[in-house]
Amino acid sequence: MKNTPKRKQRNKPGVVLFTAVAVMLMLSILLTATVSFVSVNRTKTNDNYKSKQAYLTASSTLESFINQIQTDTAPTNDPTAKAQQKKAIDNLKKLASANSGKGTTTNVSYNGSNGKSDNIGTTKITVAQEGTSVANIVVTCETTYLGKTEKVAAHISTQSVTKPAEYTNTIELVGNGGAGYDNLNVIGDMAGINNTTGKVYRFTNNTSIYGSYLMYGSLEVSTQPLIMLKPSLVDEKQGSTVTISENLDVSNEFHINSTMARADGYNYVNIGQKLSTSNHMDVGSSGFDVDLFCCEANIGGNDYKQYGNFYVYKGAGAYNGDATFGAAGQTINGSLYVEGDLNVTKSLKVTGSVYVTGTITGKDKIVCTASNIHEGAVLSKAGRDAKPQIPVSADAYVYYPEDFFMSNDTNVTTISDQYQAFYDGSNTKTFNTFASDWTNVDYTLTELIDLTGTGAKTPVTSRYKLRITSSCTWASDLSFNDYGNGSRILVDVSDSSGDIVIRLQNGLNLGAEWSPVIVVRNRSTIIDTTTGDRKYNCYFVSDSGSAITLNGIDSVTGKSQHSGSSACNYSFKGLKVFDYDTYVRMFDSSVLNNTKGNPGLPQSGFVLNPTSVDVAGSYRPKNSSIIFLFGENTTLNATDQSFFQGSFYSPQAIVNIATSGLGGLVVTDSAGGKMTVQCCAVGVVIANSFGNANTAFYVYTKPSTTSVMQNAKGGKDDSAFGYTLDRYDHY
Prior knowledge:
mainly beta, 56 strands, 40% strand
């Protein structure tokens, strides 16, 4: 048997093109466990191409088979589709396990375009076990054409795995307490996902979110915050929304605008209970409608202006769908729908229609065409007028950093061996250990890099005071004279290093005189073919100890339980953490050639692209392979222009990034628009509690799909029944 990674070309004479093969083939195999027929279109074959025709017929049939498996087992959240997904895989396993694992062989007949059988050879499809486990299956197609026989095979692994985690929020709060935000600026989505009633979040001093916002609790707004709805950074085809499960109280200027024309499925504000305004609220703008839904409205104070429809529908409990409009200056450039009673105490301009199920008080104050005012109306609540659903709960986390530290289950973690080695005495290395090896000191790296995105590579040289090549502890044992003053430290991830786990010694406290610059270079060559993410990652982990006990999965919540995690406290001033590929593009040679010092502002012309599409003249980082895992009761305080390019998974920890961050960073959106920001972090921040200060931005980039964070979410109801295509073979 020979493994041929390069397939023979399909664009030469004799290629069998399958158009209707896949659906009929897989319906018969996976749903009835028999093969009926394969319908093909073919070109006339010259006798000189017998062998090639046999190969192409066999390989095309096989690929159609595999493609249909992929279609029938595509990830889904729909319960009915999941059941069909499982049925398809179970039937495939039945075929493979027949005859003591030798499987099932079926002859395939080919029908021409005229419906008659064509003599283009015969093909046998065999579905069999590979080895002793039915989880591993080999599908073989063997075709004989005019005396020439060719055989190809696909080796697949069936699986029933927890749905991979999806990270769509730049900042996500997991705790059950409220929070206040002062000058917080988020490029991407933000959420408070703990569905505990009574929480109150507060926006003050120009807080802005350029994306979607989802929160469980109430929001109090003062001092001119802004939510600018933008296309999703996860999928540019999707729009954005604001969802607040309880009340929205606006006491001083609140603006919710959009960069998108309204379409079904986005551009809306959905308030689960009451909207109250007392001073100036704008929703939408001309040409960019934003609809608003609530269960009770009290519009007062000064100025309410909206472009879009205003809906007040009945809700749970005492929320009867009533609305009062008494602001000094109030305009709805759209239609008003009220399921309860409408009370208008000051002039209300409505450019569309007014529909009220109950009674209208102050009808004379409504500035609207009289024939467009409908009292006692029946509301359809369909299409655009349907109230969006507030999810009962967000996608819950099942596993915590403690599971990644201590679990022996390789389906949960890949780093527990490295973590536990710090506590069983088998890894005593610290940063200072590498400083004692001259090959890692004053390290110079030159690499060919495509800086322009054109494919042309140029040599780029960067220098570092210290190089780290394996897991170790970052302790307080480095010499300040050698490693203070902004020393550049390279963490070099490779196939030989595997995952590099860096334990932060509890109590690590580095003042502004240290201001270390950490650059993580990832050159592991094993790459996920779907996402392009490298297999190995760099983890900065809390010093949570080895006394952690994993107490199993709670039968009610479906979440992992643990105890014994040690509390940790960290304080950094001026700490900067960069991904190498971003670092060498962000700064010019005058910065890259220094081994110490504050790198300063990014070079002119560097534009960071956090969107899901390429934008000319910008750099779009890959999913981040830098992961911060902080256990329960850990507190991180980062101040004085600290900057993090990486993802924080700290659902039971406190993350305070109270810093003005990195100045002068130019960020683009998918349309090529640019703005220059002070940036604190590029990644995602997931924390029990989050604190910020100063006018600084947080920019979305999701974590590597090969990191342990992919296992954090999911549960018994989120199983994905599918397969992995391991390889093709040509015999």
